[in-house]
C-alpha cells in the first residue's frame, strides 16, 4: 500500500467524521443557561471557525493530491458525466445569481467535496468506504450516547423539542438521520463476519435504535422504515424472484393505505398534517420556485437573510427563522432550478441502479448497504435538506463518494 493510498483513506475517514458534525455539535452548549450567560457566543464562533478551517484544509489536501494525478482525475470526473454537469451548472450559476458574494463563498465547499469524491473513487474501494463510514457512525453513536447520559443538558434538546436526544449533532433531526442509516447498516452486518463482529453489530443495532427513538425524529423514523422496506424488496428479487411481484403488490397496497390514512400515520409519530409547519413553508417556496424555474436563484443565493425572496417566502408562516426548505428537492430547485435538480436526480438514480446491479450480481447481503444508503438519502430529503446545496453535510459527502466509485467500478468492468 503506497503513501497516496494511505493518505486518501485517512482523508476519507476524516471527511466522513467531520461531516457528521461532532465539532458543530459542541455549539449545543449554548442551550444551557450557564453558557448563554457566559461564553456561548464566543464558543459558537470559535467552534465554527475550527470546523470550517479543518474542513477547508482537508479540501486543499485533496485538491493537491488530484493535481499530482491530474490526467487520471480529469478522466474520473468526465466518466461521472452527470455529476460533472451538475458541478459545472452550479459554477455557471455565478453568472446569474441574485447574491454573488454568497454564491462565491459557498462554491469552494462544493468543489472541495467533488475533489474528495474523485480522489476516493480512484483510491478507496467500496468495502473500505463501508468500514470507514461504519466506524465514523459508531464513534458518533457512542459519543452521543455518553453525552446524553452524562451531560443531558447538552445531549438533549431544550425549548420546543425539550428532552429529545441530539447527542453530538446539535439537533435531534441530525441524530435521527445518522442513527437511522446506522441502524440499517448494523442490521445488514449481522449476517457477516466472525462471531465477535456479529456481536458488535448487534450492540450497534441496539444503541442506534435507542438513539433513533430517543431523538423523536419523524424524518429519521420514516426514512428508516422506507429504506428497510425497499431493501427487503431488493433482497426478495435477488434470492426469491418468484415471490417478488407478490411482495411488490403487498408493498404497493401498504403505501396506498398509508397515503389514504396519512393523518393517522403522522399521529402515531406525534406529528400534525402540516408536518410541523413544513407544508405551508413548501407552499410559499413553490411560489418562489416558479419565478425562476429553469435556473433558480443561483447556488447558495436564496437563503440569505435580508434578500427579497427569503423575506417574502417566510413572512407569514411559522418557519420565520428557516435557513433551508426542509426539503432537499425544493432547495435544489431554488438554487439550481429544474436543470440542476434533473442532473442531480439522474446522477443519484444511476448510482442506485449500479448498486442494485452489484447486489444482483454478487448475491451478497453485505452489498445491500450501498442501495440502502442511497434510498435512505432520497427518502430523508423529502422532509429534510442535505443535497448538493449543503455540501458540508456528511450524507452528501459519502453519497457523492459512493456514486463516483460505483461509476468508476462500472467503467472498469465494461473495459474488462
Are there runs of 5+ residues with pLDDT below 50, and where?
Answer: 21-40
How many structural domains does the protein architecture include?
1
Please tell me what the overall shape is.
globular
Q: What is the overall number of helices?
A: 19
Biggest beta sheet summary? none
The helical percent reads: over 70%
> What would you call the structural class?
mainly alpha
Gyration radius (Cα, Å) is 21 Å
Alpha-carbon distance between the two ends: 24 Å
Could you explain how this protein is built, in words?
The model is unreliable at 21-40 (pLDDT under 50). It is globular, with a radius of gyration of 21 Å. The chain is built from 19 helices and no strands. Helix 5 crosses helix 7 (100-123). It is mainly α. The chain has helices at 3-19, 22-25, 33-37, 40-68, 70-79, 81-92, 100-123, 126-150, 152-155, 172-188, 195-215, 218-239, 244-260, 262-268, 278-289, 308-314, 328-362, 369-380, 394-415. The chain has one domain (3-158, 228-415).
What order do the helices and strands come in, and which of them pair?
Blueprint: H1 3-19, H2 22-25, H3 33-37, H4 40-68, H5 70-79, H6 81-92, H7 100-123, H8 126-150, H9 152-155, H10 172-188, H11 195-215, H12 218-239, H13 244-260, H14 262-268, H15 278-289, H16 308-314, H17 328-362, H18 369-380, H19 394-415
Helix pairs in contact: 1-4, 1-7, 1-8, 1-19, 4-7, 5-7, 6-17, 7-19, 8-10, 8-11, 10-11, 10-12, 10-18, 12-13, 12-18, 13-14, 15-16, 15-17, 17-18, 17-19, 18-19
Amino acid at each position: 500500500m503506497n503513501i497516496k493510498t494511505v493518505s486518501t483513506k485517512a482523508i476519507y475517514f476524516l471527511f466522513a467524521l467531520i461531516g457528521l458534525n461532532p465539532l458543530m455539535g459542541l455549539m449545543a452548549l449554548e442551550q444551557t443557561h450557564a453558557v448563554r450567560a457566559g461564553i456561548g457566543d464566543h464558543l459558537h464562533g470559535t467552534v465554527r471557525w475550527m470546523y470550517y478551517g479543518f474542513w477547508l484544509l482537508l479540501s486543499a489536501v485533496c485538491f493537491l493530491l488530484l493535481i499530482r494525478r491530474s490526467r487520471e482525475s480529469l478522466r474520473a470526473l468526465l466518466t461521472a458525466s452527470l455529476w460533472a454537469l451538475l458541478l459545472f451548472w452550479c459554477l455557471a450559476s455565478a453568472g446569474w445569481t441574485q447574491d454573488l458574494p454568497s454564491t462565491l463563498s459557498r462554491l469552494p465547499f462544493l468543489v472541495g467535496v467533488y475533489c474528495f469524491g474523485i480522489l476516493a473513487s480512484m483510491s478507496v474501494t467500496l468495502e473500505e468506504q463501508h468500514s470507514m463510514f461504519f466506524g465514523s457512525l459508531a464513534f458518533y453513536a457512542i459519543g452521543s450516547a455518553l453525552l446524553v447520559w452524562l451531560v443531558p443538558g447538552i445531549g438533549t434538546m431544550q425549548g420546543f423539542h425539550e428532552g429529545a436526544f441530539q447527542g453530538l449533532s446539535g439537533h435531534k433531526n441530525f441524530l435521527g438521520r445518522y442513527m437511522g442509516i446506522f441502524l440499517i447498516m448494523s442490521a445488514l452486518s449481522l449476517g457477516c463476519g466472525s462471531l465477535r463482529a456479529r456481536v458488535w453489530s448487534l450492540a450497534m443495532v441496539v444503541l442506534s435504535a435507542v438513539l433513533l427513538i430517543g431523538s423523536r425524529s419523524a424524518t429519521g423514523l420514516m426514512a428508516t422504515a422506507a429504506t428497510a422496506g425497499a431493501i427487503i424488496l431488493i433482497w426478495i428479487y435477488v434470492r426469491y424472484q418468484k415471490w417478488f411481484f407478490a411482495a411488490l403488490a403487498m408493498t404497493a397496497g401498504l403505501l396506498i393505505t398509508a397515503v389514504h390514512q396519512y393523518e393517522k400515520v403522522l399521529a402515531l409519530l406525534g406529528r400534525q398534517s402540516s408536518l410541523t409547519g413544513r407544508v405551508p413553508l413548501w407552499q410559499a417556496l413553490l411560489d418562489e420556485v416558479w419565478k425562476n424555474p429553469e435556473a433558480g436563484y443561483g447556488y447558495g443565493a436564496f437563503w440569505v437573510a435580508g434578500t427579497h425572496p427569503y423575506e417574502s417566502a417566510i413572512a407569514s408562516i411559522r418557519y420565520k427563522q428557516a435557513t433551508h426548505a426542509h426539503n432537499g428537492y425544493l432547495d435544489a430547485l431554488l438554487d439550481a432550478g429544474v436543470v440542476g435538480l434533473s442532473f442531480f436526480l439522474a446522477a443519484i438514480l444511476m448510482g442506485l441502479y449500479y448498486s442494485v446491479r452489484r447486489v444482483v450480481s454478487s448475491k451478497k447481503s453485505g452489498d445491500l448497504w450501498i442501495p440502502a444508503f442511497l434510498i435512505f438519502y432520497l427518502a430523508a430529503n423529502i422532509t429534510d435538506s442535505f443535497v448538493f446545496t449543503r455540501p458540508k453535510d456528511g450524507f452528501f459527502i459519502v453519497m457523492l463518494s459512493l456514486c463516483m466509485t460505483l461509476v468508476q467500478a462500472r467503467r472498469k468492468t465494461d473495459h474488462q
